[in-house]
Design a protein that fits this description.
This protein is α/β, with parallel strands linked by helices. It is about 30% helix and about 15% strand.
Length: about 220
């Protein structure tokens, strides 16, 4: 176990809207059993009353406080947390620290559900928002690290569900029925572990897709 820890980066998990780091309880236990050191943080506020750029600064501050200056790390962002993490990577210097970056059911191209709220963070997650357009204008920067997007075509929080797709890195489709199950389904957990175990590559190939169909559900609603 100690050898595995030495060979693997520490992993930081970033939660979504109205959640805390506790939402990763099952994933944290799973990854730790496999030998990873896992960290979570609580974004404040977690209800989009603050902009995603403000929350991203909290991620940057957490990394600066909890990791050595030259220590590389791997980053996993769920839902809104994936977009917060992208801002950290693309705008706050995270590209120089993060080696593997995984998003799980994140609205890379926005979600129409965000129209239900006027909160700053929700405005930023609307389709074609200035915030989303800005991040996507130079998304190719993510090719400098190992990037993986994991999503379900049945997502009712990310609408349309294929907003979680990205035209770069690797893609893993886990066809679970509920957005929250993406953090507990056995296929999601296995996909995260596989992405975290990949050798670091300078560039990724386009269009590499896994599709975990017809596997039993590994968890329930959170």
């Amino acid at each position: 176990m100690n050898t595995k820890n030495q060979q693997r980066n520490s992993v930081l998990l970033v939660h979504g809207i109205d959640d805390t780091g506790a939402v990763f309880r099952q994933m944290t236990g799973y990854l730790r059993q496999l030998g990873w050191s896992v960290y979570t943080l609580d974004l404040v506020p977690n209800n989009c009353d603050a902009g995603l750029d403000v929350l991203a600064q909290q991620v940057a501050d957490y990394v600066a406080t909890n990791f050595a200056p030259e220590q590389p790390l791997d980053l996993v962002g769920f839902s809104m947390g994936g977009i917060v993490s992208r801002y950290y990577v693309q705008r706050l210097g995270g590209i120089n620290r993060v080696q593997r970056f995984i998003t799980i059911s994140s609205p890379h191209h926005g979600t129409v559900i965000a129209y239900a709220s006027q909160r700053p963070g929700c405005l930023q997650m609307r389709p074609n928002s200035a915030f989303i357009q800005d991040l996507n204008s130079d998304a190719l920067i993510l090719e400098q690290l190992n990037f993986t997007s994991i999503w379900t075509p049945y997502d009712l929080m990310i609408v349309p569900a294929n907003s979680s797709q990205m035209p770069l890195g690797q893609e893993v489709i886990v066809p679970v029925a509920l957005h929250s199950w993406m953090l507990t389904d056995s296929r999601s957990l296995a996909a995260v572990a596989a992405a975290l175990a990949e050798p670091i590559k300078p560039y990724h190939q386009f269009g590499y897709t896994h599709n975990f169909q017809k596997s039993p559900l590994g968890g329930g609603n959170i």
